[in-house]
Specification:
Order of helices and strands: HHEEEEEEHEEHEHH
Number of helices: 6
Largest sheet: 4 strands, mixed
Strand order of the largest sheet: 4-5-7-9
Helix content: 40-55%
């Protein structure tokens, strides 16, 4: 019973740790480490398209811990050819080249390990401008041997073609920006697991404490008490003296008997 109790205690503790880690939301397989955004950006109906796009970029910059690629010390571009004049205007440096670009494209975020793009929109359809832009980023990511990550709303309708082409770089399309009324299913499951594990920890912990407070009865198998060691017989000087006295007495009695016999024979004569 003790083994079962302690096994339950260990399992409850492990489940609680896993649930807490999931609730902390830092283990997702994307550059932010998060399953969903730390803040809710401006969504449809809350601003114009420019404000909505800028809001998503700011939230993503905070979660990526990277500056937006519009700062003067950034301005990293994908250029049409090596002859493109950099150092002025919108590009400080060309990261890669592809002839599919008219002049240049500038991703939202660039690091040594990935390219990231924010798409805070209702739909990401495989048509028009979006196809050209994402395709150019895919070519650049492949040329640089780094993944491309595209962050969209948790409810954005994304065409499967986008998912496949972005995944070909080793990155992916991430349902990320939260919207009003959104509840992360992993968080909900983790909360239930955490409550159940905490309850099991409490019950098994009290059980363990109660068991330790109970007096334990130890049964000792019955054994015969060891025989007392025999003490060696010590010489008894008094016993030897008694034996000598007895010998003398018997000798005297024998002598008297001889004398009496001689006297008897003398009378007969």
């Amino acid at each position: 019973m003790r083994k079962i109790r302690r096994l339950l205690l260990a399992l409850a503790f492990i489940a609680l740790v896993i649930a807490v880690v999931l609730l902390l939301n830092f283990t997702a397989p994307n550059p932010t480490g998060r399953r969903y955004s730390s803040e809710m950006p401006v969504t449809t109906g809350q601003g114009n398209s420019s404000n909505i796009g800028l809001s998503g970029e700011r939230v993503l910059a905070q979660d990526l811990k990277l500056p937006r690629n519009v700062r003067k010390d950034q301005l990293q571009c994908i250029c049409n050819s090596p002859s493109y004049r950099v150092g002025v205007g919108e590009c400080r440096v060309c990261l890669a080249y592809t002839q599919s670009v008219a002049t240049y494209r500038r991703p939202d975020f660039v690091s040594a390990n990935f390219i990231a793009e924010s798409k805070n929109s209702q739909d990401l359809l495989y048509t028009g401008r979006e196809v050209d832009q994402i395709t150019d980023y895919v070519f650049a990511a492949r040329a640089m041997n780094i993944p491309l990550w595209v962050f969209v709303r948790v409810d954005t309708k994304v065409d499967a073609e986008f998912v496949d082409v972005v995944a070909s770089t080793g990155g992916g399309v991430v349902p990320y920006f939260t919207v009003p009324g959104y509840a992360d299913p992993v968080d909900q499951a983790a909360q239930r697991v955490a409550l159940g594990a905490a309850g099991m920890l409490l019950v098994t912990g009290l059980w363990e404490i109660a068991n330790r407070r109970q007096p334990r009865t130890v049964t000792v198998p019955a054994t015969n008490p060891p025989a007392a060691p025999r003490r060696p017989k010590s010489p008894n000087p008094l016993g030897k003296a008694d034996a000598a006295d007895d010998f003398i007495r018997r000798s005297k009695d024998r002598a008297r008997g001889i004398i009496d016999t001689d006297d008897t024979w003398s009378e007969i004569d």
